[in-house]
Design brief:
The structure holds 2 protein chains of 2 kinds. Helix content of chain A is 32%, strand content 4%. By secondary structure, chain A is mainly alpha-helical. In chain A, α1 crosses α2. The radius of gyration of chain A is 23 Å and the shape is flat. Chain B is an alpha/beta fold. Among the domains of chain B are: 255 residues, Amidase signature (AS) domain (Amidase signature (AS) enzymes, Alpha-Beta Complex), CATH 3.90.1300.10; 78 residues, no CATH class. Chain B is 37% helix and 13% strand. Chain B has 15 helices and 11 strands. In chain B, α9 packs across α11. The longest helix of chain B has 24 residues. Chain B starts with 8 loop residues before the first helix and ends in a 10-residue tail after the last helix. The chains are: A mainly alpha, B alpha/beta.
Chain lengths: 95, 495
Amino acid sequence: MSIDIETARRVAHLARIRVEEEELPALAGELSGILTFMEELNEVDVEGVEPMVSVTPMRLKRRADVVTDGDIQAEVLKNAPDAREGFFAVPKVVE
Amino acid sequence: MSGLNELTIAEARDALRKGEATSVDLTMACMTAMDAASALNAFVHPTPEIALEQARAADARIQAGEAPAMCGIPLGIKDLFCTKGVPSQAASAILEGFKPEYESTVTSRLFGAGAVMLGKLNMDEFAMGSSNETSTYGNAVNPWRRGNDATPLTPGGSSGGSAAAVAADLCLAATGTDTGGSIRQPAAFTGIVGLKPTYGRVSRWGIIAFASSLDQAGPMTKTVRDAAIMLQAMAGEDPKDSTSAEIPVPDFEAALTGDIRGKKIGIPKEYRMEGMPSEIEALWHQGAEMLSDAGAEIVDISLPHTKYALPAYYVIAPAEASSNLARYDGVRYGHRARLAQGDGITEMYEKTRAEGFGKEVQRRVMIGTYVLSAGFYDAYYNRARKVRALIKKDFEDVFAQGIDAILTPATPSSAFGLGEMADADPVAMYLNDVFTVTVNLAGLPGIAVPTGVDQKGLPLGLQLIGRPWAEADLLNHAHVLERSAGFVSKPAKWW
């Protein structure tokens, strides 16, 4: 499977990473190389094999659905690049 | 007496308890060594004020007679661990300026046991790399050189700063994390001990996530005994990490009996790689003889799906990374790109992530996005997860045959020169993980032990792989290997 420029553009957008037009051919080439490497997996007979979902045979733990923290607005906002009036600020989303 | 910074954890612990040294003395000795080692670029955020405060508190505890083993021991902390009020940016520009409001479980356990933090250590960006060359801080440098050749060598990666700092005696030990070999490969490249515990043995809470089903933190130390002491303080169930195991933590140091008589050590034929340097092959053979001389039985085994571990890893790890790294959006923390007139939220995301992520991280996020995208999920991601199940079963089968531990080389070469892989394709760099990545896929414990030097004078390591949750046994095997190999070489100081 090789990745064309159109696919590279689409993947970059899905990943929300801006890639300049002139860099797309090189990116497509690199991604194709990595995918070729992954295609070695097609040699393996995986008929009837369940995909691994849990590293160790354990049930995920559960806990009571209760509030255990909160009232830390200042801490939550402290590292924000732009915080105003107790909110994260972003460019206008809705016209 | 050698410098206090050259002590092992065990030696320092005993000296502190006998009153022969104070934690402040140890900490000052390490800080002096750090100041003189800027050429190694290992420590990227030194924290001398925190260190001295913690050292004074540790001395008070020791005087009061209440001193856990790690009390007063100066450590380096990989930049991947969130440390409260201290820069924690996973060596990425996208987390520039980020100072967590909380402490990771591993560091809070270590500090609770009285350990001292000297500062944060260099690494590959988001732990994605095998040479520490993807760091926003620049390369960390291996204290080892090829004899008189001054070519700077990689300390390995991703925990390259941790490995360089421990090998150069800038700290007594360091924390590392290992997703595909990131503790064991740098340990082997720098002649130190690196342990990746069983998945779930150590809490991942507060460690910046790369691939959550593979990531595990562990100790990087000068000796196997030190790895046992430090793992003791790091391990255990944590309600904040639902994958941390409710399994009792044994006394790891007490397990170092040196008696491995009757144990069965497996030698997997699939790890005999074409093009592997003959000295690594010879070292592997010698390692098996050492264990055999100590009374273990050496058994030839087969792990038939080994060949497919790397391609499976390079589907699964990027898939998980693309999901984990979605949180870096320029909204809640870290870097936000400067926007042009009329830019909306999509431009903000795309420009922020293009500026903040380095090339290798971008590549892996995009590969992960691709293999998870509609139409390719089954062909790549689900197939890789099925192959992963087969790789795990390979190990389960040999353990069911009575194998106690598996001996392999740690790396396919000794440390290479910084920049030497710059023009190679990304897959060539991924081959560094060929012997270590199976262990992460199967969730097993693995340890790299320094066992020899090659013709260039560079350290080489062997890896022991253990049964799940059998770190105690694994450490005992490693202890025997360490003792028999008698590796005592240190890098000649040039920095």
